[in-house]
Design a protein that fits this description.
Length: 512
């Protein structure tokens, strides 16, 4: 009890000492990174039209392309522009060069083009450590130029960092920055705090999973509903983590707190899941990418924050808008996009009703199925409701019908859930059933069993079975059936190494 009381006091103090800045009061949002290693990259005007059609309101560019910035004028799309790593030396060595850069890339376009942030370099600490000594100087010189232009209150300056700058990341309360970087990193964090700027972090739960697959269940990564015993618990704070994303964000906050920095918020400048990989990346699939990004979008727009800071929800930039087919192997490097360069979707997000980002789904072909590993009683109760008060058509899961086999609760529940979901027009919230159902873009039809959402659905009329006494699943008497970045691959591996080792420690301590 004493430990619990002390933990509550600690959390109260942390929350109270964290100031509420204007950036924190802003609504969290989901943006996209736009890489250009695409063989048929759209013209700037076509790109902006596409962004508007998809209701994408925040983007990050890896440079400051003048044609794209010009096309963004009066579009109301907010944009992060970037100083490429190869320009750091010039800007960090000359105030005049920094001022010229601001005039050419900011003043010339703002406010018609809504530039919100300048990302100075990309993962400088891990990709070009020789530039570490000039990174802060470059940021300060650009800031001074913004002050002269009276834009320093409107445009924030930061630098995207790799997750590998954090060591012992799990449990989050034990996380700390690589000590060799602190002499350079701490002044940058202090600069961010003084200017009201966020710390940009490139976070990739996918790579954490790849290094530890089989140890931490994939549901913990994909934001799937978890039973309490599967949640990750930080023993030092007793905070419960239902997904790895929140744990990674909190590891950043704890790392900053260890340096007495408590006034900087986290902006996730890169995050995502690849839809295709080589033979060693079996979890880089369309379904996992769809599930991850769809659930991440919902998680952010639900504004639930993290266990450490429920009052602060980090905005995120998905990596990325287009598949960059010109990128070098491995295969996954070219398959992080939501869309192909011709603007057709790579996979079909299911985020309707979740907010402004892609407010209309990119597909009309989604299905509702039962979540793996759910308690059978809870699943049965949801199945009974769907076939009863929910008025789902459960005729196909009666004995002798096409979807009766396999005769188990999960299979019957999936069919009933999809029937209800399709009947409700795939409306937001119609595939939940108190957390035991999830949306998928993979057609769950099998053999002669065609699910209601499938284009192959037969027009053959079936008698609607709605009475809960007549049908609870296939038959209530049968319900006891046991249901048995932009960075190179080498840099990715460097980032994964530190996180992977730390996560293994976390797993063995807290998933027992």
């Amino acid at each position: 009890m004493a430990i619990l009381i002390n933990t509550c006091i600690f959390l109260l103090l942390v929350c109270c000492c964290f100031p509420t800045t204007s950036s924190e009061r802003d609504e969290p949002y989901v943006g996209v990174n736009i890489g250009t290693d695409v063989s048929n990259f759209p013209s700037p005007s076509d790109l902006v039209s596409f962004l508007q059609f998809q209701k994408i309101t925040h983007i990050r560019l890896y440079d400051a392309d003048p044609q794209i910035l010009k096309s963004l004028a009066k579009s109301k799309i907010r944009v992060i522009i970037s100083v490429p790593n190869n320009q750091l030396l010039a800007i960090g060595s000359s105030n005049t060069t920094a001022a010229t850069w601001i005039q050419r890339n900011v003043v010339a376009h703002y406010p018609e083009t809504l530039i919100t942030h300048i990302a100075v370099g990309d993962e400088v600490f891990t990709t070009i450590p020789s530039s570490n000594p000039i990174l802060l100087t470059a940021m300060q010189s650009l800031y001074s130029a913004l002050v002269v232009a009276n834009l320093h209150q409107n445009i924030k300056i930061s630098t995207p960092c790799s997750a590998s700058i954090i060591l012992d990341a799990f449990p989050p309360s034990q996380a700390f920055f690589n000590q060799s970087l602190v002499p350079t990193l701490l002044p940058i964090l202090e600069f961010l705090g003084k200017t009201g700027s966020p710390l940009m972090m490139n976070l990739y739960p996918y790579y954490v999973f790849m290094e530890n697959k089989g140890v931490v269940p994939i549901d913990n990564f994909l934001f799937k509903p978890l039973i309490p015993s599967k949640e990750m618990v930080d023993p030092n704070t007793l905070l419960h983590y239902t997904n790895v994303f929140d744990a990674m964000v909190d590891s950043v906050y704890f790392s900053m707190r260890n340096l007495n920095v408590t006034n900087v918020v986290v902006l996730v400048s890169e995050i995502g899941w690849p839809s295709k990989g080589d033979s060693t990346e079996s979890f880089a699939t369309v379904d996992n990418a769809d599930t991850y990004n769809s659930n991440l979008i919902k998680h952010v727009l639900d504004r639930t924050g993290t266990p450490l800071h429920p009052e602060i929800t980090s905005s995120v930039f998905l990596y990325e808008l287009f598949n960059e087919d010109l990128r070098s192997p491995p295969i996954s490097e070219a398959n992080w996009g939501l869309f192909y360069g011709n603007t057709t979707p790579v996979y079909l997000l299911h985020v309707a009703g979740s907010g402004t980002f892609l407010a209309n789904d990119t597909t009309n072909q989604t299905y509702c199925i039962a979540v793996d590993g759910m308690d059978l009683r809870t699943l049965q109760a949801a199945l009974d409701w769907a076939c009863g008060p929910g008025r789902a058509n459960c005729s196909e899961i009666q004995p002798g019908e096409a979807c009766y086999q396999p005769n188990n609760v999960r299979n019957h529940a999936s069919y009933a859930f999809d029937s209800y979901y399709q009947k409700e027009g795939r409306a937001s919230g119609s595939c939940d059933f108190k957390g035991v159902a999830t949306v998928t873009t993979t057609d769950p039809s099998h053999g002669s069993c065609i699910f209601p959402g499938s284009k192959k659905t037969s027009n053959k009329p079936k008698e609607m079975v709605n009475n809960s006494d007549e049908a609870s699943g296939a038959q209530r008497v049968k319900s006891f059936v046991i249901v048995s970045s932009r960075r190179t691959s080498a840099i990715h591996k460097g980032s994964r190494y530190f996180i992977a080792v730390a996560l293994l420690t976390f797993v063995f301590l807290f998933l027992l």
